[in-house]
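Predict the assembly for these two chains.
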Amino acid sequence: MILQIAVGLPFAVATLLAATGRRLPRIAIDAIATATVATLSVLLGLVLAGGDRTVWLGGWGEGVGISLVADAVATGLALTVTAVALCALVVSWRYFNEVQAIFHTLVLLFTGAMCAFVLTGDLFDAFVFFELMSVVAYALTGYQSEEPDTVHGALNFGVVNSLGAYLTLTGIALVYARTGQLGFVSIGRHLHGHDALVTVSFALICTGFLVKAAAVPFHFWLADAHAVAPTPVCMLFSGVMVELGVYAVARTYLTSFADAIPAEPVRVSLIAFGSAAALLGGVMCVLQRHIKRLLAYSTISHVGLLLVGVGLLHEDALAGAAWYLIGHAGVKAGLFVGAGALLNRFETVDEHDLHGRGRSMYVAGLIFLLGGLGLAGLPPSGTWAGKALIEEAGGHSILALGVTASALTAGAVLRVWLRVFRGAGPPHPGTTQHHDAETEFKLSRLPWTMLAPGVLLVLAGLLLGLLPGVVIGRAVEPFTHLPGPAPAPWTATSIASGVVAVLLAFGVAALGIRGRIPRVDLLHRLHSGHIGDYVAWLVAGVTVFGLLLLA
Amino acid sequence: MSQFLYLIPGWILLAGVYGIVTSRNLVHAVVCLSVAQSATYVLLLTIGYQRKATAPVFSDIKPTRNVVDPLVQAMTLTDIVVGATVTALLLALTVQVAKRRGTVDPDDLRSLEP
């Protein structure tokens, strides 16, 4: 029963808040929303402690019923979602000067939809929660609807993601036509043998999830949306929402399609999409001066690595991906808290404008320094442990990819830290492009509620590698159906690769502060903000994916 | 013959996607997205279709009568609700774009890449 309550609770409270929010004082709304998410995390913690279970809703049982599946991976992921959501709500207490109850309603719906999406055992329900989560995300992105960039970014996000979701539904319909089943597990039981229809349906189902996961060339919406969404929302987007796309791809393949589609083409295509995202995201990250956009591109890069970890289809790499996901969620959500503090203080997040102006902001500076080290994968961070397992399973080329991607993204973050908080490098005139302050007036001192969640998240990410490998290994085993020895990230090679990545990141940062941030016109023009271009890229991506799988 | 029925949703989907790619007006793009989505309605109904079967409502027909698959119809209904929500929200965002940017032509909206 706990599981059903956990799935239903956020929706119930969100409805109540939407109905009564106008009459409640701000402090009551904050308290209700925060208490709900806190309760939800306790409930999910109880579910996790109770072990793996499957619940058939309404007692219909297998065959007709719809299930909730709480295995360790799904529950752990839902718990990560609520932890980040809790921090985001705490940040939003003082972050918004004026905020209506609709914001809290949307955040609760968003959290509930993400939890339900990971916990459902039914493919069509997964689509419904996926769409619910997406629609709430568009609304949250466009929350400050008086800003032109904000509504433009939200619209791009909406069109591309919805089209992806419709392709997913097309795939679900095709697989239902073949098997007459909609449950992840029951589809897996009914699918045998390899044919074109099943392959096409798998490609279509995964497309929507890959759009969410921002694999290249489906990634264009992400930077547009993240750069303009309110900072507490960015924490949820970058920390957990995007990663759920990778989880969904892994779940769909391993639970439903593993017997029907040979592993080799899946491996090749996922690694290709993931590597492209890891590299392009890393390069674009270094080329940014808008700090929120910079963090958005680093998310693309890291989620690309995550996709590579899943695409290796190897038990250690999957354990690594799970580890990496949680570590990255902490570090990235924490970094957005730091960016939010800058935006609040100086009403801009342009790196050149901010040169040396963050010297007195010790805590925000600390978040950027530790966050940069976390992205680089300094042992014993969760990102390091996860990346070590992925690299070990993937061999030399994946090792090089992992080190390059983390050095580029972490280098960009450390460059921001050096330039903004240490005043390093020569000053450059900024663009004086006005960025709206999401909070309308400057607070004289940043309150602890706007910084402490960031420090906690980054520290959690940085220490997650200390978790014994056996815990992650045991959690992932029923998910992957691939038994194996407990993953052990503590090897000489992995520590060396972590340290090398950190050193290279400092190198990238040092090179970066010497001059202006370069522009590569081709790459900047590619990310044009034009909705037609984005959809064309999406179609090209689906075609390539389908051809790779059919080949 | 019946396999060719599956080409119809494919055609509708591609028509919608073509519309978005070449769109010169955001309202038109959002409507094209709805067109692309209606391909999923047609596909779902095609999958559930049976010759000489009737609607799965048993109040006024014999329980032995052949009916089409009710599950896909339920899915279509859910899908329509989802589609209405998405279209409404995206049109609201389009109204805001028109107000703040003064244009609804995607070619005239400047890039978000600074």
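Chain B touches chain A at residues 9, 13, 17, 20-23, 26, 29-30, 33, 36-37, 39-40, 43-44, 47, 71-72, 75, 78-79, 82, 85-86, 89-90, 93-94, 96-97, 100-101, 106-107, 109-114 (CB under 8 Å). Chain B has one domain: 2-101.
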